[in-house]
Design goal:
Layout lengths: L17 H6 L1 H15 L11 E5 L2 E10 L17 E10 L4 E4 L8 E4 L5 H9 L5 E6 L19 E9 L13 H4 L1 E7 L11 E10 L2 E8 L14
Antiparallel strand pairs: 1-2, 2-6, 3-4, 3-5, 3-7, 6-7, 8-10, 9-10
Length: about 240
Amino acid sequence: MLLPAMALFFVACSDDDDNTWESYTEWRDANNAFYEEQKFLMTPEGTNYYTTITSPSNSAAQVLIKYLTDRSKTEGNLSPLSNSTVTVKYIGRLYNGEAFDSSYNQTDSVLNFNLLSVISGWTIALQDMRVGDSARVVIPSGQGYGASTTGSIPPYSTLVFDVKLVDIPATKYVPEKARDCREQSLWIFSCSPQLPAQMHVPGLSLPIMALSRPPYSCLWGRSGVSRRCISMSWPTM
């Protein structure tokens, strides 16, 4: 039975206590062994089947990713930031292949969410993807739900997701300087209470500037790869 799509979000239903640790010893060992097996899985050509992706803010936080589509066809497309809102299609499974969640239960088979609101494994993986990419992502329990029970997901579960990054949704708000996108070709790509004065983003050329709408700011820059405008929705207080 598939869970509602909210299974992706942070839910803590049990504590990491001695009883949980002891009760799930066999399950935990099986999940850890599966993750290590996938990490070192090789292709017939002798290369790693998965690529290890590391969080830029925590070198110990890693996930495995295998792209299922030709990435040359998505070269130049946007990648989300850690606070982006994304549109995805996905199916989530336990290490034994049992499905626990799917966006295909939703209208149009997609789900929208902000990367700040999901498990860290999703945030790490989605930031590596570009719009249009499909991938299989293997997430260790430490980047998933840890010692918590979430719906039908037991503690210490390694999670396997088949996911497609469909879009980074646009908003109607465009700063005054960027209203004529056809002429100025501007990206509006990140909103946050605190943003650096400049930031390097693949596919964008400088200048990248901050536009303020207190208490939030947006960064924008001239795109070298497309002549369309895209932006994040302004966060609400």
